[in-house]
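Quick one:
INPUT:
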């Protein structure tokens, strides 16, 4: 066992340095590479997160811009027609009222009967007129007698005045009395004529050739004179008919003197009739905003009946309908009916419009937009002026 107090000689082996550590070759190089890799990974991770956040923000902003579908307003350059309700009436019709009070003695024609001008329709009994007529004749006889006496007296006084037997005043009094008696005779004649004329009204006559379209009398019925009286008969000339149509005022300028229209009636489905313009009221009715127009047509075969409803096709020249849009493009706002348009910079511009005709699925626009406007179809109710939009590709 070696002595621990023994000094090491020159030939003794060197002591082992257990606490000494030497870096393996290349370790520092690998450490630097690992550190560089860690830095690169950290930078890439941070960059990736920043890029993801930036991309998300851009996507969010991009999604905030609504995508809209654009449509173009259409102008009907071929013209067309509008369907308007019409009312068919006899070209000539006459309601016949009682002109005197009395009882129906007899009537001769019922509804649907064809009559000629002057034919007797009914007769009335007028007891009151009989007494009035007798009284008028008696008054006339009395007035004529007084007039003859006054004339003879005036003639005698004229002779006496010529002889100077009476004064001028006496003569003038008799002449004035004669004038009064002459006036009384004229009044009595007029009264008798009036009563006689009323007696003629006991006979109800057809005013023209036509058809009896209504009858409101029966034997023994009392008929009276008055504003609320019901017509006893109605006679209509059905050989020619009128069609009354109320045209909206925005189409009134298209009413032409030589225009014709076609129409259909429910009792003849699929059959078309034609009528020509007869007259136009030339003024807009304030209550309806329409112009009353009258068309005429021959009906000698009696195919159509007065009072019939007709669907009239009113012709329109090219461009008369203006601009047409689908109803899906309309926006109901406090400012009125509006549409959303897109300007050149893809920003919304709301425009207030006026609808001239509503056809359900589409509307005709009277004013507010032009055919060049880009209009949003099915606009979101939240759209406001100046909002940016993206136009969907077709």
């Amino acid at each position: 066992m070696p002595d621990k107090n023994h000094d090491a000689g020159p030939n003794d082996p060197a002591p082992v340095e257990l606490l000494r550590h030497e870096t393996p070759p290349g370790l520092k190089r690998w450490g630097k590479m690992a550190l560089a890799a860690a830095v690169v990974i950290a930078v890439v991770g941070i960059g990736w997160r920043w890029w993801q956040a930036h991309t998300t923000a851009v996507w969010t902003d991009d999604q905030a811009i609504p995508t809209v579908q654009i449509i173009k307003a259409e102008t009907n350059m071929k013209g067309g027609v509008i369907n308007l309700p019409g009312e068919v009436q006899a070209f000539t019709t006459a309601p016949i009222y009682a002109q005197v009070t009395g009882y129906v003695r007899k009537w001769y024609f019922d509804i649907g009967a064809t009559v000629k001008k002057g034919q007797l329709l009914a007769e009335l009994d007028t007891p009151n007129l009989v007494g009035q007529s007798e009284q008028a004749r008696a008054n006339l006889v009395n007035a004529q007698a007084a007039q003859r006496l006054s004339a003879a007296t005036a003639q005698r006084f004229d002779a006496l005045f010529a002889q100077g037997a009476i004064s001028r005043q006496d003569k003038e009094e008799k002449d004035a009395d004669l004038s009064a008696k002459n006036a009384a005779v004229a009044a009595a004649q007029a009264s008798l004529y009036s009563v006689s004329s009323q007696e003629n009204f006991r006979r109800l006559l057809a005013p023209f050739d036509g058809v009896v379209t209504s009858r409101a009398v029966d034997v023994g019925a009392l008929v009276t004179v008055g504003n609320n009286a019901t017509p006893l008969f109605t006679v209509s000339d059905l050989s020619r008919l009128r069609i009354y149509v109320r045209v909206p005022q925005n189409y009134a300028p298209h009413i032409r003197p030589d225009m014709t229209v076609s129409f259909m009636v429910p009792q003849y489905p699929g059959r078309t009739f034609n009528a020509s313009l007869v007259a136009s009221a030339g003024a807009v009715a304030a209550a309806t905003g329409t112009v009353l127009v009258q068309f005429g047509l021959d009906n000698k075969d009696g195919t159509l009946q007065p009072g019939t409803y007709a669907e009239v096709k009113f012709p329109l020249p090219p461009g008369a309908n203006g601009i047409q849009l689908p109803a899906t493009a309309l926006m109901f706002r406090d400012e009125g009916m509006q549409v959303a348009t897109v300007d050149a910079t893809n920003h919304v511009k709301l425009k207030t419009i006026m609808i001239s005709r509503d056809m359900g699925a589409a509307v005709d626009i009277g004013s507010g937009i032009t055919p060049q406007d880009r209009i949003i179809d099915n606009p979101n109710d939240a759209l406001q002026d100046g909002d940016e939009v993206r136009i969907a590709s077709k």
